[in-house]
Design brief:
This protein is of the alpha+beta class. The protein has 24 helices and 16 strands. The mean pLDDT is 95.
Length: 582
């Protein structure tokens, strides 16, 4: 039985077997929800329990999971999590996105949907409350995201793949409502491997709150904190994520020439948020229950690129044309491609060919990756595989096979250390030290040193594992913290949670992800940055290898892991994971 049935958690997990076409609904154990909350945590546990599988096999589960706050009016709680094994990295993988997909899933009456198997023919999974059906998708197979979404949107919120996912391109994403992405890691290829073109969800139920009065009080507290944050009210709310371009260029951490040396003649002004505002007059758009509204569209309703896309499709490939980035971003969203990895492999390609990527080439190569044609077929395997095939593995700027985001770790060393120790590979959102090292929130820490960063990285990794399980937007944490979200979680569920509880749950999730990767054969050798950052000085900065290794050892000790990066029996027992085999 659930602690408080119907409050926060609905106590229903829908399971779909595409091989047989069958479905059923199961009630999760109370301890599963208390120990993992929902979202990323719930997904990770279910993926772990599925055992060792090939990422593109029918047995690999694809799990959409809500959190207990999803579907309520809790600020910035409109996101939903997806978990699976990544075909790009081989690691445990989760991704989350905004839009209305999560709230619709919750209103339909489910905490999560677990999809396994492989349909003999292309299908659409339709869910409307208790009505679950698989419909033929032959007429949509071969179509890209926007056309597919247009055909299906009257049935509810649409999560679908484009041609890239159908062809199992390892950089493929799943796109929600044509504008929001489950990006990174090739999750779209997993969906394509199942012959699943789209999931369409519509819910008509209510998402109830246990204590309405306390919920409203805590919601107002969080909203006040968000309004009081200059990063939100003067940055994200005004300009969206592109406001970061000027900051990172000023800090000299905006990547250039595949994380090489920046050419001072390269003009960054076309990429600044103020310039974009003057040229495009962007419109603000927001996800469900979000007061920040960081996404931007042009006057015709076409999505404009986020910071990561601008940072990596600009100076990092020596492309001076913002308009070409807009078009490449549009193509990525339509084909269903992860923009960070597409840009990362293009940076690798540019270095290996000793050339800049022209605006026309950026657009053409993006299209070729989506079509899996010509050179695009090789690039679509990711930078690690592409560089290795060229005999130059050192040119791939990746960790565990996942391309790095748009912050040069030489100048944000804690963030760089978090890339190396991330369970899903090179990723800035696992610990999101962008907040303290770049934006000085919740407090400033020195970005130019590794001293003390083992502790900072561990804390932030645990924090955001819990945030991803609620599932709450990371930007909200620029204002509110785990105490505020523990309070509103308690009001929603009727179960008392403290900030310490959330941090412990985050630590449990992080360690379970570590166990998964260890089971898959990953070792401490993969907790490493590309050699370039230790050997090549840029802007007078380099990472000291000895100091990095010392920090890694300190990090292992703080996590309660042995010298090989394996959680000790004592740590596993403290976290309730000692019964797991890996």
């Amino acid at each position: 039985m659930l602690m408080n049935p119907g409050y926060g958690w609905l106590g229903r997990i829908l399971r779909i077997d595409l091989s047989t076409g069958g479905s059923d609904c199961v009630t999760p154990d109370e301890t599963l929800l208390r120990d993992y909350i929902g979202g990323r945590g719930l997904g990770v546990k279910l993926v772990y329990d599925a055992g060792r599988v090939d990422a593109l096999s029918p047995a690999n589960p694809l799990i959409f999971a809500t959190g207990p706050l999803t579907g309520t009016k809790a600020p910035a709680s409109g996101r939903v999590s997806l978990s699976t094994k990544s075909p790009l990295t081989g690691t445990i993988f989760d991704s989350n996105c905004g839009g209305s997909f999560g709230p619709e899933l919750k209103r339909a009456g489910y905490d999560a949907v677990v999809i396994t198997g492989r349909s003999p023919d292309p299908v659409i999974l339709g869910i409307e409350d208790d009505q679950v059906e698989l419909r033929p998708a032959e007429k949509l197979w071969g179509k890209n995201v926007k056309e597919t979404t247009t055909c299906l949107k009257d049935g509810g919120s649409v999560a679908c793949i484009g041609k890239a996912g159908e062809r199992q391109v390892l950089l493929a994403a799943i796109i929600v409502d044509a504008k929001h992405a489950f990006g990174r890691g090739g999750v779209g290829a997993v969906m394509g491997s199942k012959n699943l073109k789209a999931v369409v969800i519509k819910g008509t139920g209510n998402v109830d709150v246990c204590d309405d009065e306390e919920f409203e009080r805590q919601k107002q507290t969080i909203n006040r904190l968000l309004v009081a944050s200059p990063t939100i009210t003067r940055g994200l709310a005004v300009f969206g994520t592109p406001f970061l371009v000027k900051i990172t260029s000023w800090m000299k951490i905006l990547p250039a020439a595949n994380f090489g040396t920046f050419d001072p003649a390269f003009d960054l002004h076309p990429f600044f948020a103020t310039t974009i505002d003057q040229q495009y007059s962007p419109r603000r758009t927001a996800c469900y229950a979000c007061p920040i509204a960081c996404k931007r569209e042009d006057e015709q309703g076409n999505e404009l690129p986020e910071y990561e896309t601008i940072g990596l499709m600009g100076a990092n490939i020596k492309n001076p044309d913002y308009n070409a980035i807009v078009e490449a971003n549009r193509l990525c969203n339509d084909y269903g491609l992860d923009t960070i990895s597409v840009a990362g492999v293009l940076g690798c390609y540019a270095e290996l060919r000793n050339k800049a990527i022209t605006p026309a080439e950026l657009v053409a190569l993006t299209r070729l990756i989506g079509e899996e044609q010509g050179l695009g077929k090789e690039l679509g395997r990711g930078s690690k595989r592409f560089a290795a095939s060229e005999g130059r593995p050192e040119a791939a700027m990746q960790v565990k096979g996942l391309e790095l985001p748009a912050y040069d770790p030489r100048g944000v060393k804690g963030l760089g250390f978090s890339y190396a120790t991330s369970n899903r590979g090179g990723c800035h959102t696992r610990a999101y030290l962008v907040a303290p090292e770049i934006l000085r929130k919740p407090k400033a820490i020195d970005p130019y040193t590794l001293a003390g960063k083992a502790g900072h990285v561990k804390i932030f990794q645990d924090r955001f594992a819990a945030v991803d399980s609620l599932v709450v937007c990371k930007f909200a944490v620029f204002g509110a913290g785990e105490e505020e979200y523990a309070n509103i979680l308690s009001a929603v569920t009727g179960v008392t949670f403290t900030s310490e509880d959330l941090m412990l749950i985050g630590e449990r999730i992080w360690n379970l992800e570590r166990l998964y990767n260890l089971r898959e054969g990953f070792t401490k050798d993969e907790d490493m940055l590309p050699a370039r950052f230790f050997n090549e000085e840029v802007n007078g900065r380099v990472i000291n290898r000895e100091e990095f290794l010392k920090t890694r050892s300190e990090y292992y000790r703080m996590r309660g892991w042995d010298d090989s990066g394996v959680p000790t029996e004592r740590t596993l027992k403290r976290l309730g994971l000692n019964q797991l085999k890996f």
